[in-house]
Design a protein that fits this description.
The complex is a heterodimer of chains A (about 280) and B (about 325). Chain A has about 280 residues and is an alpha/beta fold. Chain A is built from ten helices and seven strands. The mean pLDDT of chain A is about 95. In chain B, about 40% of the residues lie in helices and about 20% in strands. In chain B, the strands form three sheets. Chain B has a seven-stranded mixed beta sheet, with helices on both faces. In chain B, strands 9-11-10-13-14 form a five-stranded mixed beta sheet, sandwiched between helices. A two-stranded antiparallel sheet of chain B has the order 1-8. Chain B starts with 5 loop residues before the first strand and ends with a helix. The chains are: A alpha/beta (about 280), B alpha/beta (about 325).
């Protein structure tokens, strides 16, 4: 059982992260809200519960590795890094602007980023290599890879899934942000992937299906994944794209379009974000 | 040159990996179902725990290598040049090169001399697709010793490297004591009328051409330029200034490859007339290496003809 006080703390952090995402987008006037908001709750469960890391020392050898294969969710990634203490909160205002460390898709300029990502279908392969290398050295570090469901359409993703199953990488945990949408519409209409859980199982993965907005389920899933031996685990997190902003929810159009300043204020109000978030 | 011992550069690569692995346990090797052809089988047999077969799935292999480099390994990715520098180009670009990762790529079966397998398996564009990538170093060793030195250098250097190897045995023309400095061309023959800039195992043809030209009273300088990127601008500019004409020789498309790299240096330093020996915008085909060198205009007499042609237009 997870600690209820901890759950409440993480839910509060998740709320602030959603405010940060909208605030970041308001300043940048560019970026990806939908997938940032869908991945927020499990993202917080990762950074504030499951992942062993040290924001004071990015190169800490004992740290777990996090690879955001869905690198387009910069507003979420950088908000998590700011909340963890890797970068100043004020720096979020520089997202996507000339000279920033917070590039449109993350790269190594930003502390806390392990590898540049953003070209979908590439992250899991990188995570596979990390997991292989850490296991070779007998190290306990775990590797987490956050993926979108649409990138399951990439052939190379299945090469990576196959190899992780083949090499029995039980130090590898994928979180699949299963909101069911991609830029062109519903995943099932664009290029259907169901039954997705069965596909991963067939490639020798342990599958844990959860409600990706239920903090307790997120925390417990990552705890359980640590106990799985002899095969990698995928946490199939059922989520809602744009979660938390009523008019963004389940709307493919909010994949890669930043809300205008007025819309950002609406969203921040709906989320009941504190006054300091309205400075644009 | 038949009196010289002939060894394929892929063999030197396989040997070098085994030798270097004994001294540096960070070295790991990744293969894609071509461990025999790439000679990484030798490493796999000696160090089974440090060898990973990724099956026929090059894109995953490249990024797995990137991941291995991120946890402190020195990964050598080995498959045919066409599959690595073509199919997995996006992975090399956006993961390895963008993040400037310590991934080493061994592109085997470079050039038309691959022979009977034909166009699908003859890498003729790999140097171009690799050298265009920021942070990438591109080296095409000419023979056994140069290959071993290049692999040794690449293990010590931190950053992405593409090394290209040939399938066929080629004469061992350099010595174990000859210098190998990344980015620095080696002078094989001094000359004053023209400079032949060679890249890779086709060196034997260039050396033959130098002898044939000597008989015709033409003094040809021969530079063996193993590093395509960064190119040795100084040696090329000096050659252009001192000999007034340049012919490049490569077993690769003349568009975008080594010849283009030399031309970029020449036009920005000391513009002189040039000719390009290589594949002239065609796909390869089946045949013996000798037949294909003739068919695609790579033999020594083609180099001689190109020299005679370029000398005609050089400034007095």
């Amino acid at each position: 059982m997870v600690d209820q006080a901890k759950v409440k703390e993480l839910q509060e952090i998740a709320h602030r992260i959603r405010c940060d995402i909208l605030w970041t987008l308001a300043h940048a006037q560019s970026g990806h809200p939908g997938g940032s908001l869908s991945a927020t709750d499990f993202g917080v469960a990762l950074y504030f519960h499951a992942v062993k890391h040290n924001p004071e020392n990015c190169g800490w050898p004992e740290r777990d590795r996090v690879v955001f294969s869905k690198g387009h969710v910069g507003p979420l990634i950088f908000s998590l890094l700011a909340a963890s203490g890797y970068i100043p909160h004020e720096e979020l205002k520089t997202f996507r602007q000339i000279g920033t460390r917070l590039q449109g898709h993350p790269n190594l300029e930003c502390p806390g980023i392990e590898v540049g990502t953003g070209s979908l279908g590439q992250g899991l392969s990188i995570a596979v290599g990390m997991a292989l290398g850490l296991r070779m050295d007998g190290k306990p570090n775990r590797v987490y890879c956050i993926m979108g469901d649409g990138e399951n359409q990439e052939g190379s993703t299945w090469e990576a899934i196959m190899s992780a199953g083949h090499y029995k990488l039980d130090n590898l945990c994928v979180v699949l942000d299963n909101h069911g949408l991609q830029i062109d519409g519903w995943v099932e209409d664009v290029m259907g992937l169901q039954p997705l859980a069965d596909k991963w199982r067939a490639f020798r993965w342990h599958v844990i299906e959860i409600d990706g907005h239920d903090m307790v389920q997120c925390m417990e899933a990552f705890d359980k994944a640590k106990e799985v031996k002899g095969q990698p685990t995928v946490v199939l997190a059922k989520t809602v794209k744009g979660k938390g902003v009523s008019w963004m929810e389940d709307q493919a159009e909010w994949h890669g379009k930043a809300p205008k300043p007025d819309q950002c204020r609406d969203a921040l109000q709906e989320l009941a974000c504190p006054a300091e978030y309205f400075d644009f | 040159m038949s009196e010289r011992k002939a060894i394929a550069t892929r063999d030197a690569y396989g040997e070098a990996l085994v030798e270097l692995a004994a001294e540096d346990e960070r070295i790991v090797v990744l293969g894609a179902d071509l461990t025999n052809s790439t000679r990484t089988e030798w490493f796999a047999k000696k160090y089974p725990d440090r060898f990973f077969d990724f099956g026929i799935a090059e894109q995953n292999m490249l990024n797995a290598a990137a991941g291995l480099s991120l946890v402190g390994k020195i990964p050598w990715v080995s498959t045919y040049g066409v599959f690595v520098a073509g199919r997995a180009w996006d992975q090399i670009r956006t993961t390895t090169c963008y993040s400037n990762l310590n991934v080493k790529i061994g592109g085997a079966h470079g050039g038309i001399s691959v022979g009977p397998d034909g166009a699908t398996h003859q890498a003729l564009e790999d140097v171009a697709t690799m050298r265009v990538l920021p942070n990438m170093t591109v080296i095409v060793p000419a023979d056994y010793h140069e290959t071993k030195k290049a692999v040794t250098w690449a293990c010590e250097y931190i950053g992405p490297v593409y090394l290209r190897f040939g399938r066929e045995p080629v004469p061992v023309v350099t010595g174990p004591e000859d210098p190998f400095v990344m980015g620095r061309a080696n002078l094989i023959n001094e000359g004053t009328d023209v400079t032949i800039c060679n890249n890779g195992p086709v060196l034997r043809e260039a050396m033959e051409a130098v002898e044939m030209l000597k008989e015709k009273g033409i003094s040809a300088r021969l530079l063996n330029v193993h590093t395509v990127k960064p190119i040795d601008r100084d040696a090329i500019a000096t050659a252009a200034r001192e000999t007034g004409a340049i012919v490049t020789v490569e077993e690769h498309q003349v568009m975008g490859g080594f010849g283009s790299a030399v031309a970029e240096a020449v036009v920005q330093t000391h513009p002189v007339p040039m000719r390009f020996i290589g594949i002239q915008d065609r796909f390869g085909e089946s045949g013996t290496p000798e037949e294909l060198f003739e068919e695609f205009g790579l033999g020594s007499h083609y180099i001689v003809a190109a020299v005679e042609d370029v000398i005609k237009v050089k400034k007095p």
